[in-house]
Write a structure and sequence with these properties.
640 residues; alpha/beta; eight-stranded mixed sheet; six-stranded mixed sheet; 33% helix
Length: 640
């Protein structure tokens, strides 16, 4: 590593090189970004790394997670990744944990041992948790995400920059009306949802008719819904034929012939749309006899012909039925995008249904992306993002925060640059997560200390230099659970153990009386992270103690609410003629970044109503100048 140290010294200085070699890093996630990140960190001079990931390696990971090989399938990602970087750098102090980062074991004390945390996660819930823990432990965090050719890296430091939740990231599950899915599909996704959540579930899995589908039971479709329920019951009876040579035929004739005939018997339904076409099993079987299509290795990137889809349907239906029959206990098979039989069955039946309704075909690869609610990952994007994370990490551990920035990867053939950057944003003054005073509450004996003891201790602090300015009227909550306020004192005599307030839990203390506050801090709630006692030199620990006062940032007063008197009424958005629609796909990406399906220049967004409307769909407008839309995690930022 001598050459690496010399290079770091030349670029960042001797002090930075020393900081890099001694810094303790936590990497959360060892997937697409995580593999690239761990490799880059180990080759950039970082010597002390701990990696945490709950997942094991699947076959589908191997196309982009290059630290893994086929022989590693089913092994923990973190362990294999750490072993790989030890091979790159034998002298590195690297450790792996296969665990859920949300486990109580990983409390504020555990996070505090690190100089920097780097997130390479693929789900919002875990990212929110790590964001909160880093704020509580006063440890900087580097957040990242990718989705296809889009990527983002930013640095989060409590009191100095925006945190992960400074702007809302609403995630709404896409649902489709039952009648559209069952009777009048018009897009490939309708056929895929039908194949996955209706046909596959009814035949091989647990019944889940309403997943991804909503029923609108009005007078016009009540009769149709009744027929659809009867149709579901009839399909469920087909399970009796499972395992027999005729299983594929009876399923096919039910869903692609009989059900279609029923739909065609309702002419009013097809007055303004193309009617479906019945498929004939015997006819397709006759044609398939001359086909050289191999259902054991179907092409994944090209759409199937009608005959190929028929052959694949027969093959996968038989395979799945055989798997259930061999179980012998009447079990079920859950859809998994990495289960080839399940995926190919859904792809084949969705393709057949598309032919029935005259809908564009999709390949197995595209079906996998839609059925698995994933955005195909691009290895190059992961590599670029990981490289930017390491650059930011060097500057953070060497205390050069002023040189850090938020960077975006946004591929566009019309643009000369694929990486854009902007200065780190300051915290949102109204953020419900980072506009908090995070302290550590150390409890010596959870079974003996009561909630009343904690309340008394907080009141006692008002007479010391560590006054929290909470006043006498306070409320205490844990998540959505109310533990105490002046009108609810039932828990005062209960121990922390009885209230399940153990190590790793957080309670929020808020001042209720804001009429005569002494300072701005009095308006900011206090979050207490519960931890064990700190024992030094064998001395007896205090029953209760609060730490971290010196780390709490100063808070500026909240700005008064403003109302734009000039904002027009109504729901119309006032954009220039050359603006285009911004459409945000709310599903999680493979590495946790929402997709921006289509966005170009958005001009002169000065209308306050327009800003609010854009905010509702996850678009943040920072100032009324011409800007460009760039995807961030589950939101879109209009940035320069």
């Amino acid at each position: 590593m001598m050459r690496t140290t010399e290079q770091l010294t030349r670029i960042f200085g001797q002090e930075a090189a020393t900081c890099v070699s001694t810094a303790r890093l936590l990497v959360v996630g060892a997937g697409g970004i995580g593999c690239e990140l761990l490799k880059d960190l180990s080759m950039s001079g970082f010597q002390h790394i701990e990696a945490v990931d709950l997942d094991t390696i699947d076959l589908s990971n191997l196309n982009r997670q290059f630290l893994f090989q086929r022989r590693h399938i089913k092994r923990p990602k973190s362990e294999v990744a750490v072993q790989a970087i030890r091979n790159f750098n034998p002298g590195i102090d690297a450790h792996a944990r296969q665990a859920n980062i949300k486990e109580p074991t990983f409390d504020v004390d555990w996070f505090s041992q690190f100089d920097l945390v780097l997130n390479a996660l693929d789900n919002l819930d875990a990212r929110r948790h790590v964001n909160t823990m880093c704020l509580a432990a006063h440890v900087p965090l580097i957040e990242s995400g990718t989705a296809g050719y889009l990527g983002q890296v930013t640095v989060i430091k409590g009191g100095e920059t925006e945190c992960f939740e400074c702007h809302p990231k609403p995630v709404e599950r896409k649902t489709f009306p039952i009648c559209t899915i069952r009777s009048t599909p018009s897009a490939p996704i309708h056929c895929i949802v039908w194949a996955k959540n209706y046909l596959f579930a009814q035949l091989f899995g647990e019944r889940q008719d309403d997943k991804d589908m909503t029923a609108e039971e009005d007078a016009e479709n009540m009769e149709e819904l009744k027929q659809l329920r009867e149709e579901s019951m009839a399909l469920a009876k087909l399970a009796e034929a499972m395992g027999s040579p005729e299983f594929a035929r009876v399923v096919f004739e039910k869903v692609f012939s009989g059900d279609i005939a029923r739909l065609l018997s309702m002419p009013d339904m097809w007055k303004h749309r193309q009617p479906p076409t019945q498929l004939d099993y015997d006819e397709l079987e006759s044609v398939a006899l001359g086909s050289d299509f191999d259902p054991t290795s179907p092409g994944t990137h090209t759409a199937m012909s009608l005959t190929d889809a028929f052959v694949l349907f027969k093959y996968t239906a038989g395979r799945l039925a055989q798997r259930l029959d061999s179980d012998g206990q009447g079990g079920s098979i859950s859809f998994d995008k990495d289960d080839e039989d399940a995926l190919n069955f859904v792809a084949a039946t969705a393709s057949l249904r598309s032919y029935v309704f005259g809908i564009d075909q999709t390949s197995i690869f595209e079906t996998k992306a839609m059925a698995g609610n994933i955005i195909p990952a691009i290895a190059t994007t992961n590599a670029v993002v990981a490289g930017m994370m390491v650059t930011q990490a060097i500057m953070v551990v060497s205390e050069q925060m002023s040189r850090c920035h938020t960077a975006y990867v946004s591929y566009n053939s019309k643009r000369s640059r694929s990486v854009l950057s902007e200065p780190l944003a300051t915290p949102n003054a109204t953020c419900a997560v980072c506009r908090r005073r995070y302290l550590t509450l150390r409890v010596a004996d959870l079974s003996r200390t009561t909630l009343g003891d904690v309340v008394d201790y907080l009141h006692m602090l008002a007479e010391t230099e560590n006054n929290l300015y909470l006043g006498e009227d306070i409320s205490i909550v844990e998540g959505s659970r109310i533990l105490y306020d002046l009108d609810f004192e039932d828990n005062m005599e209960k121990s922390m153990e009885e209230l399940d307030l153990g190590r790793g839990r957080m309670i929020t203390v808020t001042r209720e009386d804001l009429d005569d506050v002494e300072c701005v801090a009095a308006t900011v709630p206090v979050v207490l992270s519960i931890a064990g006692p700190r024992v030094e030199d064998g001395s007896q620990p205090l029953d209760l103690d609060i730490e971290g006062f010196e780390l709490v940032p100063e808070f500026a007063p909240l700005p008064p609410p403003t109302v734009d008197e000039t904002a027009p009424s109504g729901d119309q958005l006032h954009f220039a003629d050359d603006d285009v629609a911004v459409v945000v796909d709310d599903s999680d990406g493979d590495e946790g970044l929402a997709t921006l399906n289509h966005a170009e220049n958005v001009n002169d967004i000065s209308d306050e109503l327009a800003k609010r409307k854009l905010s509702d769909i996850g678009v943040r407008v920072e100032s009324p100048v011409k800007r460009r839309a760039v995807a961030t995690d589950d939101e879109t930022t209009i940035s320069e």
